[in-house]
Amino acid sequence: MKNEKFSVVIPSYNTKNYLKKAIDSVLNQTYQPFEIIIIDNNSIDGSQEYIKSLKNKRIKLFKIENFGSIAKSRNIGIEKSRGNWISFLDSDDYWHPQKLQQVRDVIIESQPDMVSHNTYNINKNDLIISSSIYGQTKISTVKHLLTRGSLYHTSAVSLKKEFLNKNQLFFDERLALAIAEDYDLWTRIVLNNGKVCHIERKLSYYRMHDRNTSSDIKIFKASLFVRKKNLEYVLIKGLFKINDLLEIVLFYYLYKSYVKSKQLAKLFS
What we know:
Blueprint: E1 6-12, H1 16-27, E2 35-40, H2 47-53, E3 59-63, H3 70-80, E4 85-88, E5 94-95, H4 99-110, E6 114-122, E7 128-132, H5 141-147, E8 158-160, H6 161-166, H7 181-191, E9 196-207, H8 213-237, H9 242-267
Parallel strand pairs: 1-2, 1-4, 2-3, 6-9
Antiparallel strand pairs: 4-8, 5-9, 6-7, 6-8
Helix pairs in contact: 5-7, 7-8, 8-9
């Protein structure tokens, strides 16, 4: 049976209080990772010192300045990885001990290009406050991504490196996509006919932080940028029949109007 090698990519920035739990959750996997690649964005809270103190040969630390683009951190992690599969984990999230084992089982059985799963949502004190079900849609996956939004969460995604390299896929590092750079990559993977498998189990813990109106607007604008970018790609490639294309265009303009209404509401609030 094939021995899948997982490279776990963890971007970090001043999250020392959560980093230990994230790293421990990887080291305690029932199916052990090949390597852990931590891309630290010049943390000043002792994160780098903590990582070095672990003295674990499988943990590789790279210090960078990403200038506000977590996409750059993840791309460096992909570039430095030596495994044939890449699993992403944000430094304030953590995994269920059987996450990699269950992902590997799906890889062996179905030979996908991307694997995702559901998540628990937790607060700053690790209390479960809700859960998120990903990967389910009543329409095609590609139409959902183009018209409704993302279907996946970064800490719940594993990607086949060979597929990324073959199709020259990576996270878009432009700041206009910051916060939605993952949504953009999942969309382009599906547009490139990537096979996605979803595990109907909650195998990661996503830490939810307080958000304000300004951060919401930023998310909406980044998501709009993703939709515009990929709509342009769809139009150039002629990927859909006219009825589907009209629906996708309609949803784009509806969402554009929604974002503008949110901006105006904030302006006059």
